[in-house]
Amino acid sequence: MNRASSTRLAAAFVLLAPVLVACGQSPAPGGGPPPAPTVTVAKPVERGLTERDEYVGRFVAVDSVEIRPRVSGYLDQIHFRDGQMVKQGDLLFTIDKRPYQNAVDQARGTLAQSKANLGFAEADLERAKLLVKDRTITEQVFDQRTQGFRSATASVAANEASVRQAELDLAFTELRAPVAGRIGDRRVSPGNLVTGGTGTTTMLANIVSMDPIRFEFTMDEASYLRYERLSGSGKEMTGRDGGVLVGLKLLDEKDFSRNGSMDFVDNAIDRSSGTIRGRAVFSNPNGMLTPGMFGRIRVPGSPTYNALLLPDAAIGTEQVRKFVLVVGPDNTALQKYVTLGPVTDDGLRIIRDGITADDRVVVNGLMRVRPGQKMNPQEQGAPAAAPAGSQAKAQ
């Protein structure tokens, strides 16, 4: 080889050396194979947790009552301020009582008259009993007096009922709160004629209860089936008995800090949407939770169990399958396909299947090794375990 050829070969080597270094294939001393890449490995975190499903829903009042009059008349007084909290039994509206008071007085007068007639008929009948024995009066006259006494008795009973009805109508002129809660605005001003009875009546106001308050949401059919199967195995998940605890947050809150319990699951799946309605109940002492308000609820999606968890950085993707690399014989990278679960509150991913608690999984440096390649594993302490019974939300 001449000097020119040697010069060209040396120049080519100089140009190729940086490329080899960039590819991670820098020549080992003495021309041997490159060293095994260094990776960080750790065992999966094992702890007890409960998976949680999240749903969006809205609050509804336990009781919602429309205030309508039972008797007709002119509205006389309003005894509340629009939008205030009222207690059960509080006086809300007063209808002009004077016509109904007159009806009571008239019914009582008629009752008194019928009682006087009854007294006379009773005394007349007692006299007739003595006279009929002496044959002073005929049997026909005695029967007439008996019939008169019975008619007087019936008249007293009818007039007593009329008095009770008149007194009831008089009491209905005062409309009181049937439930405790927040009342809306008045719909009618004093002086207007309001219509009561059983037909078309006048809407005066409405009251919604505030504490406790319900939260309604819908779940899909697959989730409902999962809950029912768990409940059938003795692990109550549907909450029909009121023993399942749930968490809730409002639209401007970050944490599910409001605690309540499930109290109802509907008896049929909606045919148009394929969902079923669930309901939880929450305390609302300060009245902040308002009917119609949206929120997000978190319900138990599984019983508490021991789960294996890994950071998402330890999980690789091969087309549609997920895998991890574990330390195999002679520190070779062994590929294991896994089934993933939801992410926990502290950011770790639940691994449902594919690894064991004793596997040493590559948690840092996954892209530097390939399955079957030797590696230099460096142990890393497992992430701090959260308390048992921690939560994982479905994603």
List the helices and strands and how they pair.
Layout: H1 3-22, E1 38-42, E2 45-61, E3 64-67, E4 73-78, E5 85-86, E6 91-95, H2 98-133, H3 139-171, E7 174-176, E8 181-183, E9 193-194, E10 205-208, E11 213-220, H4 221-232, E12 245-249, E13 258-265, E14 275-282, E15 294-300, E16 305-310, E17 316-318, E18 321-327, E19 333-344, E20 349-353, E21 361-364, E22 376-379, E23 390-393
Parallel strand pairs: 1-22, 2-23
Antiparallel strand pairs: 1-21, 2-11, 2-15, 2-16, 3-10, 4-6, 4-9, 5-8, 6-7, 8-10, 11-14, 12-13, 12-15, 13-14, 16-20, 17-18, 18-19, 19-20, 19-23
Helix pairs in contact: 2-3
What's the architecture of the largest domain in CATH terms?
A: Beta Barrel
Order of helices and strands: HEEEEEEHHEEEEEHEEEEEEEEEEEE
Task: Please write the CATH class name of the largest domain.
Answer: Mainly Beta
Q: Determine the fraction of residues in helical runs and give it as a percent range.
A: 25-40%
Annotation field: number of helices: 4
What is the CATH H-level superfamily of the largest domain?
Efflux pump adaptor protein, beta barrel domain
Tell me how many strands there are.
23
Q: Structural class, judged by helices and strands?
A: alpha+beta
Q: Spans with pLDDT under 50 lasting ≥5 residues?
A: 9-26, 382-389
Beta-strand proportion:
25-35%
Instruction: Report the biggest beta sheet as strand number plus sense, adding barrel if it closes.
Output: 12 strands, mixed
Number of domains: 5
Q: What value does the Rg take, in angstroms?
A: 43 Å
